């Protein structure tokens, strides 16, 4: 039948002058119309044809019909009278139309609630041992209709209460028919949602004891709806929450975590999260009564909503210090860390809040480190979708740091911090390489600065990070984490290492330093030696040269031919480079520019001018780029510049992503890791030899100690060993000093 035809038949039931309308025909038409209303595409047509204005009066007319005819001889197949069958279909129609919010108010204003509440009240509980025939179906459909009408409609929720609809719904909770129980629970659940007055009436009508018993129902639909009602009753209502707990709801709710019904599991987890905010004692009881293992299992289930509610409950429970250790020991930490990396922002936030709680207990520190919690928190912090989640993760990181560096350094906090630090350092002894690595990375980030030297240098903890950095077998993520940890560590160590010259001072060296001043650079006044550079004559003074390096001392006071020469050829150094080198010899200072820095480094290495070499290393390091860092490192190796090599490694750590990307292919990756393996000793030597700052400031060092061996000034090659003093070697022809 079409909607209009069905409605016309129903309309005849209102206008018929026959003493007894054809209820069979009315019931048939109502059933057909209900079938059409199940299909969304017909609802608007049904309403436009005037269904509401027909169905509601027909439903309300049922009261008069019932009074006039106490018993209808025509009995339906279900055992109900035709009048009851008709009323059931009419309620069903109204419930289906109310699914669309725009028709809720229209139905209520037509007086539907009067008829629906009447039908609820007419259902009489006659037995508790078996389902009773008759009006159970009508009451169920009436409750369902109220549920749909009141859904997210505050006005209709209030009208139901004002028309005394809550007491019969509470009474229906004790119906033998589980379908009626489900329907009554569903209606109460909707009416209680964010409506304090309705909550109070439901509680005052004595619903709580029955609802708690329904939590133990064998029917999953019943206990799902019952736990939902209780959840809405306690939401934002502390007094109701306490009363529910007093009535003994805790254990039945915990038991539902192990239900075969996922919906009941989800709702019970949500309700436990709400219970956990009642007081500290309730938090402890929830854990003591066995909730945590079930909640942890739920974290691993495929259903996202189950994970979300389990994480929500654990987050609330984790705000209790004793619960925190229990949750970790029962396996809650790994799945919570997994959820933090979920694509669902609710999962992320609930997991973040739970982890924040777990980080409060110092006993959890070793487990957090073993699972790589710090690295995963740092990694996901900027990827989270909601700012509140990002803030929560940052607070968790801060909490971990405060465990080792308490803001309030009283005796108890300091003792706890010492224990936490010892437990982390102990993990460096783990036989599992991954645990060692995570411990080292976490210590680099969290350990007090004054403890870093003891952990990483004295006890060689830094070797774990360096080995990790050089290992091509570790994952890209782990490799990056090691680079980040080393970068943090070196900067922290830099602030606590003594600022001393990194090269050993030769006894008596400082007394021989002679700086004639810039005015004597290439000045013929009192000059007693000259150099031929690119066809030009450069005037110099032996006393300044002798005091500057062992190379010049060997040249002019040893057994080389330059000892008595007036002029020396310099065939392998350009004029501006040589002039800059002499300026340093005469002043002990030089502003090294990038255009000559590499050549000047080579010259300083050739003439053993270690102070100048340091300045060159700093200047070159200041101009490092992603593209040049590896080539620069090879240059540092060629000219014995370990500090430049160390700075190349630090640059590669600081610009990890950009540098790694250049070599992120099978062809170039071996070269990348080979360079890292050769860079690492530069950093190790600097740290283990008790040198000065790791990140050079660029200031010139004190007069450097001379190194053994002197170069051949004109050779352009490696330095030659100086002749022993007093050999009396004669001077020959040419630029290079020669042995006799």
Automatic annotation (TrEMBL):
Residues 728-740 have a biased composition (Low complexity). PROSITE patterns: ARM_REPEAT (PS50176), BTB (PS50097). ARM repeats lie at residues 164-206, 206-248, 290-332, 331-373. Residues 527-594 form the BTB domain. InterPro entries: ABAP1/ARIA, ARM-like, ARM-type_fold, Armadillo, BTB/POZ_dom, SKP1/BTB/POZ_sf. Transmembrane segments: none annotated. Residues 698-740 are annotated as: Disordered. Residues 699-711 have a biased composition (Pro residues). Pathway: Protein modification; protein ubiquitination. Signal peptide: none annotated. This is BTB domain-containing protein. It comes from Gonium pectorale. The lineage of its organism: Eukaryota, Viridiplantae, Chlorophyta, core chlorophytes, Chlorophyceae.
């Amino acid at each position: 039948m079409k909607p209009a035809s069905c409605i016309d038949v129903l309309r005849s039931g209102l206008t018929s002058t026959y003493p007894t309308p054809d209820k069979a025909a009315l019931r048939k038409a109502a059933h057909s119309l209900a079938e059409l209303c199940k299909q969304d595409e017909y609802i608007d047509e049904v309403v436009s044809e005037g269904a509401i204005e027909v169905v509601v009066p027909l439903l309300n007319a049922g009261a008069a019909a019932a009074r006039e005819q106490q018993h209808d001889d025509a009995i339906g197949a279900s055992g109900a009278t035709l009048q009851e069958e008709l009323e059931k279909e009419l309620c069903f129609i109204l419930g289906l139309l109310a699914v669309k919010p725009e028709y809720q108010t229209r139905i209520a204003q037509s007086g539907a609630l009067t008829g629906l509440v009447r039908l609820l009240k007419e259902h009489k509980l006659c037995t508790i041992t078996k389902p009773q025939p008759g009006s159970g179906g009508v009451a169920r459909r009436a409750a369902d209709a109220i549920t749909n009408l009141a859904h997210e409609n505050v006005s209709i929720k209030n009208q139901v209460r004002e028309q005394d609809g809550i007491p019969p719904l509470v009474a229906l909770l004790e119906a033998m028919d589980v379908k009626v129980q489900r329907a009554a629970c569903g209606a109460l659940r909707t009416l209680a949602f964010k409506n304090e007055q309705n909550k109070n009436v439901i509680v005052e009508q004595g619903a709580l004891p029955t609802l708690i018993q329904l939590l133990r129902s064998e029917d999953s639909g019943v206990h799902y709806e019952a736990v939902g009602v209780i959840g809405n009753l306690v939401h934002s209502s502390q007094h109701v929450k306490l009363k529910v707990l007093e009535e003994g709801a805790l254990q039945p709710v915990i038991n539902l975590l192990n239900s075969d019904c996922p919906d009941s599991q989800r709702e019970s987890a949500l309700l436990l999260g709400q219970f956990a905010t009642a007081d500290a004692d309730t938090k402890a009881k929830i854990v003591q009564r066995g909730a945590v293992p079930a909640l942890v299992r739920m974290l691993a289930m495929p259903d996202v909503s189950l994970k979300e509610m389990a994480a929500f409950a654990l987050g609330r429970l984790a705000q209790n210090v004793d619960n925190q250790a229990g949750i970790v020991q029962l396996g809650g930490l790994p799945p919570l860390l997994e959820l933090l990396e979920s694509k669902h922002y609710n999962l992320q936030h609930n997991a973040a809040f739970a982890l924040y709680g777990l980080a409060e207990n110092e006993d959890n520190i070793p487990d957090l480190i073993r699972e790589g919690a710090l690295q995963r928190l740092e990694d996901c912090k900027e990827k989270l979708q909601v700012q509140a989640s990002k803030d929560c993760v940052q607070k968790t990181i801060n909490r971990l740091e405060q465990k080792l560096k308490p803001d309030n350094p009283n005796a108890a906090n300091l003792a706890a911090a010492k224990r936490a630090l010892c437990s982390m350092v102990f993990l460096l002894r783990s036989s599992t390489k991954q645990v060692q690595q995570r411990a080292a990375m976490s210590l680099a980030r969290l350990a007090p600065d004054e403890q870093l030297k003891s952990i990483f240098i004295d006890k060689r903890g830094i070797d774990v990070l360096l080995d990790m950095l050089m290992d091509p077998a570790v994952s890209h993520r782990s490799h990056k984490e090691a680079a980040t940890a080393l970068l943090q560590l070196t900067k922290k160590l830099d602030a606590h290492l003594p600022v001393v010259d990194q090269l050993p001072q030769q006894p008596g060296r400082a007394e021989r330093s002679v700086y004639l001043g810039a005015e004597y650079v290439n000045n013929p006044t009192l000059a007693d030696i000259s150099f031929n550079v690119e066809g030009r004559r450069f005037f110099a003074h032996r006393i300044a040269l002798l005091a500057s390096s062992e190379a010049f001392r060997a040249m002019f006071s040893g057994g080389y031919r330059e000892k008595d020469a007036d002029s020396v050829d310099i065939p392998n150094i350009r004029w501006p480079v040589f002039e800059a080198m002499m300026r340093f010899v005469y002043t002990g200072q030089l502003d090294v520019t990038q255009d000559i820095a590499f050549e000047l480094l080579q010259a300083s290495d050739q003439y053993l001018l270690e102070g100048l070499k340091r300045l060159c290393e700093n200047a070159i390091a200041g101009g490092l780029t992603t593209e040049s860092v590896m080539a620069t490192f090879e240059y540092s190796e060629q000219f014995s510049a370990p500090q430049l090599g160390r700075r190349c490694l630090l640059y590669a750590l600081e610009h990890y992503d950009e540098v790694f990307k250049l070599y992120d292919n099978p062809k170039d990756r071996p070269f990348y890791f080979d360079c890292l393996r050769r860079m690492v000793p530069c950093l190790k030597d600097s740290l283990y030899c008790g040198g000065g700052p790791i990140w050079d400031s660029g200031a010139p060092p004190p007069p450097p100690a001379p190194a053994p061996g002197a170069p051949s000034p004109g050779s352009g090659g490696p330095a030659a060993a100086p002749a022993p003093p007093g050999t009396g070697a004669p001077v020959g022809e040419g630029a290079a000093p020669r042995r006799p």
